[in-house]
Amino acid sequence: MAVSKPEQTHPGLKTLWAPWRAAYVASHRNKKQSCIFCLGRLNARQRRQRLVLYQDVHAVAMLNRYPYNAGHVMVAPRSHVGSLDLLDVEQGVALTKLLSATIGILRRAFKPAGFNLGANVGRVAGAGFADHFHWHVVPRWQGDTNFMPVLASTKVISQHLEASFELLSPFFEKVHEEMVQA
């Protein structure tokens, strides 16, 4: 069976194919889902189960259950709003502080060569949880994209989520202490 070359959507613009994400997208179609970012106070066991690394009155940080890379963290406000511009100043400052702290933690824990930071605002922009604004913080390394997605339709994540949680939790505990003292 011959495989045709996919058409380019815009001349000169390359397409990044991520077929391993199809399972995630399909699992959420036609499902009424609760918001993963709207959390009550969680005990340690619940935080571990939900991969929540940090939470306070204004913001939450959690590992992405469907990561692009090891250490993929999502940072969100506690307020259930769909866009950054809908936060008040205090919430925006708290979110920015946690986003900055998350980058610093990932830099120390994983020693990446760089980061992708992104937010998809609205369903049409690709937001899986369009009603709750959140940032994606994805550590990147030289050569972290290889032949596996192309030849085997498989994305290689170099570390298990539980191992990432164990590695990052102590760093986020220190951030919590610092934020409480501030």
Explain what the structure shows.
The protein has helices at 22-28, 44-50, 89-110, 148-152, 161-181, and strands spanning 52-55, 59-63, 73-77, 114-118, 135-140. It is an alpha+beta fold. The protein has a single domain (35-181), classed as HIT family, subunit A, CATH 3.30.428. It has a five-stranded antiparallel sheet with strand order 1-2-3-5-4. A hairpin with a 3-residue loop joins strand 1 (52-55) and strand 2. Helix 3 (89-110) packs across helix 5. The longest helix has 22 residues, at 89-110. The protein is globular. The protein starts with 21 loop residues before the first helix and ends with a helix.
List keywords for this structure.
alpha+beta, HIT family, subunit A, 5-stranded antiparallel β-sheet, globular
Topology of helices and strands:
Blueprint: H1 22-28, H2 44-50, E1 52-55, E2 59-63, E3 73-77, H3 89-110, E4 114-118, E5 135-140, H4 148-152, H5 161-181
Antiparallel strand pairs: 1-2, 2-3, 3-5, 4-5
Helix pairs in contact: 3-5
Quaternary structure classification: single chain
User: How would a textbook summarize the main sheet?
Assistant: 5 strands, antiparallel
Total number of domains: 1
> Distance between termini?
63 Å
At the first level of CATH, what is the class? Alpha Beta
Helix-strand category:
alpha+beta
SSE string: HHEEEHEEHH
In what range is the share of β-strand residues?
5-15%
> What form results from the Cα inertia axes?
globular
DSSP helical segment count: 5
Whole-angstrom Rg: 18 Å
Q: What's the total count of β strands?
A: 5
| CATH arch. level architecture | 2-Layer Sandwich
The percent range for helix content is 25-40%
- The average pLDDT score comes to 82
CATH topology (level 3) name: HIT family, subunit A
CATH superfamily: HIT-like
Low-confidence stretches: none
